[in-house]
Amino acid sequence: MEGFKICVVGIQLIYAGYFLLTKIAFDVGMNTFVFVFYRQFAATLFLAPFAFSLQRKSGPPPLTFSIFIKIFLLSLFGITMSLDIVGVALKYTSASLGAATVNTLPVITFFLALLLRMEKVNIRTRGGMMKIAGVTICIGGVATIAFYRGPFFKILLHHHLINNHLQQFQDKVPSTNTWIKGVFLMLLSNLSWAFWLGRVLKEYPSKLLLTTLQCFLSTIQSFIVAASVTRDPHQWLLGWNIRLLSVAYCGIVVTGLTFYLQTWVIEKKGPVFLAMTTPLIMVFTIILSAFVLGEIISFGSVLGAILLVGGLYFVLLGKAKEEEMEITSASCQTQFCDVEKGTKEVINTSKLKLPRPV
Fold it and tell me: CA-CA distance, 192 to 86, in Å (whole number)?
């Protein structure tokens, strides 16, 4: 059990580093669309040798034209679009907000499944009521983050590890309109990501090869997007600086390493175990952003984040309650069938004609 805990904490810490390094790269002037292209390119280069070497003996699964089109569309809407939108949103807002809105992913996925009739909610049961309450609380958290700022909190440090990316206090706090745009862009990114999560292909059995192919297609797609909006050739230069570090970290560590860690945890403990630890990303990101960047945190963001976490747990607990009820119902039905079958056997036995005694 300790190994699972360390692994899960490591996954969430890696994601906290992703939000932090990405925000720093954007603050020092890196183009968001170029960043997404380099990130996906680095992930493809990292994953491709492992994918092809592992599939060399057994051979890759057959890839039909229809499956390829599905993978292409999933890469476009679930990866390329999501990463491009979250990049713009992070530039408008903060790393802490990006980490806080991650808690909406399970809720958005559940809401999409409900709209597509892939999920059912019985409001007469405790689990159904908890799900509805979770979605409502999550919506309240989003509204709080977007429209209520409140007082600001600042860590009392005069020198931060990176203290030259912003100069004045007023520069560190985005305007209200900019903040609201960033919040809703972040939610749009999560909606696109939830679409990808909800439609993971079961038709292609090799997960590693599927991830590599998605990264490769996303690299091409993100290059087309970046080339169409970025004309300045200097924006494509990396150098030995924070830009290269951010690209390498996101492409290799986030996409490569966490893929295996998440798959291992989900196979051993299930997806709920991993989802329950998602708020750790927010906690780690807030701490790192405050001490490394000197990031200003508003009371509205803290309150909204608490509501988001509460909504997440309500939905997850409601799901667990419904699954528990389904298992109990199935068990009772099985026992009833066994009893009914035994009763019929007793009745049939009593109807047998016994031989007359001589």
Answer: 10
> What is the token pair recorded at 58?
């057994």
* Maximum pairwise Cα distance, the chain: 112
pLDDT tens sequence across 259-286: 777 777 776 766 666 777 778 888 888 8
Rounded distance between C-alpha atoms, residue 118 and residue 129, angstroms: 18
Residues in contact with 294: Cβ distance below 8 Å, sequence separation at least 6, in sequence order: 154, 155, 157, 160, 163, 166, 172
What is the Cα Rg of the chain in Å?
A: 25
- Give CA–CA dist 114/117, Å, rounded: 5
> Which residues make beta-bridge pairs with 297?
153
The beta-strand segments (E) located in the chain are 152-153, 297-298
Give 125-170 pLDDT, tens digit per residue. 888 888 888 888 888 888 888 788 778 776 555 455 455 444 443 3
